[in-house]
Write a structure and sequence with these properties.
The structure is a homodimer. Chain A is α/β, with parallel strands linked by helices. In chain A, 29% of the residues lie in helices and 25% in strands. Chain A is built from 10 helices and 17 strands. In chain A, helix 3 links the parallel strand 3 and strand 4. Chain A is elongated, with a radius of gyration of 22 Å.
Chain lengths: 352, 352
């Protein structure tokens, strides 16, 4: 079946583009001697996580425990969860998960460390813990290398915990500042007798500049596997590299300059990402998806010389591909425009 | 179990508030003599659709065929699909659905009408078709009453189709203009021998002003069952009326003025709805959810005298509740803060 014959809306991944994105990233990481620990949030598919490991990834990253459980069920054995896991329900599940695969967790506060320490008390199988560092991203994380060291000492003092290092979700476009922060943390930790085994850096936008983050021992890009309009706007490849498209049908042409697609915020996701419009229509590059309702994508055709007819299928490169993966139950794989397989998005919608 | 003891993120519906929203709307509709055909997109739950029918709804509205199929499976028997259904896969399913429940479909173009006509040719069981009218909303729909009449004639000429009337998704805050459009259409149709049996008007924001849309025979509000921050901003009730909340945990307090919730765009949805912040934290009304990443809600606490601690549970009224329902597999029902039941969101994520 041709990709444009799929019932819509649907999502399709061009396997050749995806493989090219993957092999380029792994070759780059090998070249600079840094490990890759891909973030599976972009695809949420065990088969693709296994592919990343086969290509040389040191392990995977899952943001949620539920995603890690699905990946463990599928045979993934080395999983980082860079998220504060809080509360007895999650700690029970973490305990069960850590008994069957290698799990690395994280913390940015004494409260989170205390939770891990109460559940993991066996020095014979210590739980590795990374400290999250806010290197300028303004999300979670300790605010200074000194605060990192204070928390590292608490982890080190807990018999069942193993202080394994640090990680950061870095601010985009500031690799030098990130490196300065991490280098300072690394030096302080070494001087204090708590050396950092793992220094994990994240994010796809700056991935091909990560050679400047010399303190990092591993990198956790996610979006690089598919890429999207936002990554392209950040300078990470071109629109041609975007492997995932949303296939949609033109369901209405109410006026000469307006089309309506059957892909709205339930298919394309509402993340604007500070971009003009809600996606790039490949065959109508001048068209602008001005508004998304849940089931309607409203398109301004005023810039288009050629205009789509009712019933026509179009392919849209989404602004932010990770959130699109979370809206579909399956993704179709294509080669040369032909559907060659379908993968279940097994870790879709796992919020806890 | 208390709602604040749920593992997070989760969604909870206060049954008393929901019932109050429902009974108020049904009483209002009865009072002005207009039928209600609630849009199930807000809850996507067959049990709640059945409750709406038990309370007197004339039928239900589903935006997608897949939603209608789930509702038909659950015993709903009168379903409007106000969406152009295009392509053989959907027409096959529509044919099957129309053989087991009463379905009303819609069209805004000759192409869509032609699709229905090719599949439905039996005058013994004609398919009722409404014409979508763009009364100023700028989405789908014919652009004038005259264009409506042209299309009505095409439907009337098809042996297996039954021209049943019109519907509109109206622009907000312009009930007088909507009424003028519909009254003109109604008069034109009557003069032309094609009277409108159904004139269906939509939207929750103006629901309590729908008495001014005197031409309407039915109304299709959706969000009224739960309400949300956007509806409140439109003047539809108060924050106290909002029945659905997202229960979240404070997972980080990186600075004195910043908290991070485990509810990001995967739980609260990224629709900003032109509101300040991504939701209203009930116990911290001065807090502003400034940024959503997929799994992180970043909160500015600078306006808060009292501030939440790490591990604390909070309840958030989302900006747009319909898109939140689409992100969760189940919803918990509560009474006086206690969880009294859990409903599966059976029509979640049905895009086709």
């Amino acid at each position: 079946m041709h990709v444009l014959d799929l019932d819509t809306p649907a999502i399709a991944v061009d396997r050749t583009k995806m493989m090219s994105n993957l092999t380029r990233a792994h070759a780059f990481a090998d070249g600079i001697g840094v490990a890759l620990r891909p973030h599976i949030k972009t695809h949420k598919i065990p088969e693709l996580a296994r592919l990343q490991v086969e290509l040389g990834a040191a392990g995977i990253t899952c943001q949620k425990l539920g995603e890690a459980e699905v990946m463990a069920d599928a045979g993934l054995t080395d999983i980082l969860i860079p998220y504060n896991l809080i509360g007895s329900a999650k700690l029970d599940r973490l305990d069960a998960l850590a008994r069957r695969v290698d799990v690395i967790v994280s913390a940015d506060s004494a409260e989170t460390v205390q939770g891990y320490a109460t559940r993991f008390g066996d020095p014979g199988r210590p739980l590795p813990v990374l400290i999250e560092c806010d290197t300028g991203g303004g999300r979670c994380g300790v605010q200074s290398p000194a605060a990192m060291l204070d928390l590292a000492r608490k982890i080190d003092a807990a018999p069942g915990l193993d202080f394994a290092g640090v990680f950061t979700y870095p601010p985009r476009g500031r690799v030098d500042a990130v490196e300065a922060w991490l280098a300072q943390a690394r030096a302080l930790a070494e001087r204090s007798g708590l050396p950092l085994r793992i220094v994990s850096n994240g994010g796809s936008p700056d991935f091909y500049r990560v050679d400047k983050v010399r303190s990092a021992t591993e990198h956790r890009p996610g979006t690089y596997i598919y890429s999207d309009r936002m990554q392209v706007s950040f300078g990470h490849g071109t629109l041609e590299d975007c492997a995932l498209t949303v296939v949609a049908t033109v369901v209405s042409r109410p006026t000469a300059e307006r089309a309506v697609l059957d892909a709205g915020s339930k298919a394309l996701a509402a993340d604007t990402c500070a971009l003009p419009g809600h996606g790039h229509i490949i065959d109508y590059p001048e068209a602008v998806i001005t508004t998304l309702n849940e089931e309607h994508g409203i398109v301004d055709l005023s810039g288009c010389a050629h205009k789509p007819r009712i019933g026509e299928r179009v392919r849209v490169i989404p602004n932010h591909v990770c959130v699109v993966s979370n809206l579909f139950d399956e993704v179709h794989l294509t080669e040369d425009g032909q559907v060659v397989g379908t993968l279940k998005i097994a870790a879709r919608g796992l919020l806890r």
